[in-house]
Design a protein that fits this description.
Shape: globular
Strand order of the largest sheet: 5-2-1-6-7-8-11
CATH superfamily of the largest domain: NAD(P)-binding Rossmann-like Domain
Number of helices: 12
CATH class of the largest domain: Alpha Beta
Strand content: 5-15%
Distance between the termini: 44 Å
Largest sheet: 7 strands, mixed
Radius of gyration: 19 Å
Length: about 325
């Protein structure tokens, strides 16, 4: 298959490198230092045991221009970056292209073929002007959840910390041929990938943790282990998750883990910095709306009180504002 991976961050780089090493034709769309590094030497992946491999046979470009449409486009950008490139991304899509969405948090297509009371609702916190929806055909989207923990050490160099689950699922829960093909390709690339019949309940498990751990991590500059082992922040994370579980219940979503199980799972990852903390440390804009703001919109939609999520959203938004002002000044 021909895969086009849009975004060469930690997860995009890891997936691109593994797909290429397993024999697929991979094109990476990257810009700046990442593009230059990948063009000159490929993508290096450093595994948790210290071993490393270099995927040198993949292609890269800094433009949304390919000779033909790929079989599958993997959108590995941060959620707040998608709307700005959606019109360019549209030029790569034909009627047979499958688009795999790999964003943290609640995805923009969440209510497409959801089948409930809010079927078809567009999340304004993620796609305020409808730019994504009008340029990326929802009918061609398959959801995925990136469970591996990884960091971008430098442009073109990815450190894989732990985890290899990369499940996918159709928005309507069907078991399609395209989902089976992509699941097989991911599995052959070394990921544990299966086709889920209930992708949204699994999205909630990951988003649940992102909601709690990402903002706490950024506000306290702490790792997952530190948050989970300090009683007050562990308790705060649990309270945030409890509010989110109330939203899930109002939407008819069954979150299949207990709060304690989710926190324990995060603790086992160890001294890993969340993506929001990594963004803060590199003076990048943080993913506040997809990881936290979308829950406020869902709470409003379902009439669910969420005072702690409201407070954490305000705090981390102010932190991001200060960070961006400092970055602009320098």
């Amino acid at each position: 298959m021909h895969f086009c991976v849009v975004g060469a961050g930690a997860i995009g780089g890891l997936i691109a490198a593994r797909l290429s090493k397993s024999g697929h034709h991979v094109t990476v769309i990257a810009r700046g230092a990442s593009y230059e590094a990948i063009r000159s030497r490929g993508i290096e992946v450093i595994e948790s045991d210290g071993s490393s491999t270099i995927a040198s046979k993949l292609s890269t470009t800094d433009q949304f221009v390919l000779s033909h449409s790929p079989d599958c486009i993997i959108v590995a950008l941060k959620a707040h970056q998608i709307s700005s490139v959606a019109p360019e991304l549209a030029s790569l899509i034909d009627t047979t292209t499958t688009i795999v969405s790999l964003q943290n948090g609640i995805p923009w297509w969440y209510f497409y073929r959801e089948g409930g009371s809010y079927d078809g609702y567009r999340l304004r916190s993620l796609d305020p002007e409808g730019t994504i929806e009008s340029n990326i055909p929802s009918a061609q989207v398959i959801g995925s959840i990136a469970f591996p923990a990884a960091i971008r050490v430098s442009p073109g160099v990815i450190a894989h910390i732990e985890g290899d689950r990369l499940p996918i699922g159709e928005p309507d829960g069907s078991r399609s041929d395209r989902a089976a093909l992509i699941s097989q390709a991911f599995s052959e690339a070394g990921f544990r990938s299966r086709v889920l019949a209930d992708i949204r309940s699994h999205i909630w498990i990951k988003a649940w943790g992102n909601l709690a751990f990402n903002p706490i991590s950024a506000l306290t500059q702490s790792t997952l282990r530190e948050i989970c082992e300090f009683p007050s922040t562990r308790s705060l994370a649990a309270d945030l998750m409890e509010e989110a579980r109330s939203i899930a219940g109002a939407l008819g979503v069954n979150v299949r883990l207990s709060i304690e199980q989710r926190i324990s799972g995060a603790q086992e990852v160890g001294d890993h910095k969340t993506s929001m903390l990594q963004d803060l440390e590199s003076s990048q804009k943080m993913e506040i709306e997809p990881l936290v703001g979308a829950f406020l919109e869902l709470a409003s939609l379902t009439d669910t009180p969420v005072p702690r999520i409201t407070a954490i959203h305000a705090l981390v938004s102010l932190l991001d504002s200060h960070s961006q002002i400092k970055a602009t000044a320098t």
